[in-house]
Inverse folding.
């Protein structure tokens, strides 16, 4: 059977945005910490001590730099996970039930397609896969 994969654009945007935010936070923390850590003999232990000692003040809330590093790493991991599960796979030849994202009406088709014209609202859409049957 032919394999059809649907990639959702919103997942691309969310995944890349989370990765970008995480990388920005990590680079900002490293940019702030590097001048104080660079002169040390053991850079990694000095960086760890500095990250736990120094704080970043947002005006109304203060965070240690290590907490920012953890949030940045978490954003990167979550962004990569969103990018990894962004697609929906189904096989041609299966009977599928599709749903229009605009009018929410459902219809059955014997051959799944990535983009179709909704028979109810007559818009060219990327339907949501509701159920598959062989």
């Amino acid at each position: 059977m032919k394999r059809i994969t649907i990639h959702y654009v919103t997942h691309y945007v969310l995944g890349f945005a989370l990765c970008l935010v995480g990388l920005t936070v990590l680079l900002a923390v490293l940019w702030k910490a590097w001048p104080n850590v660079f002169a040390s003999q053991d850079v990694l232990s000095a960086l760890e001590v500095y990250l736990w000692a120094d704080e970043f003040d947002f005006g109304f809330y203060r965070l240690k730099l290590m907490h920012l590093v953890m949030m940045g790493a978490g954003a990167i991991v979550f962004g990569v996970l969103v990018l990894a599960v962004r697609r929906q796979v189904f096989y041609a030849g299966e009977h599928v039930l599709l749903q229009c994202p605009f009018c929410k009406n459902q219809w059955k088709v014997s051959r799944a397609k990535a983009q179709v014209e909704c028979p109810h609202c007559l818009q060219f859409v990327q339907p949501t896969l509701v159920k598959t049957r062989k």
Notes: The chain is about 45% helix and 25% strand.
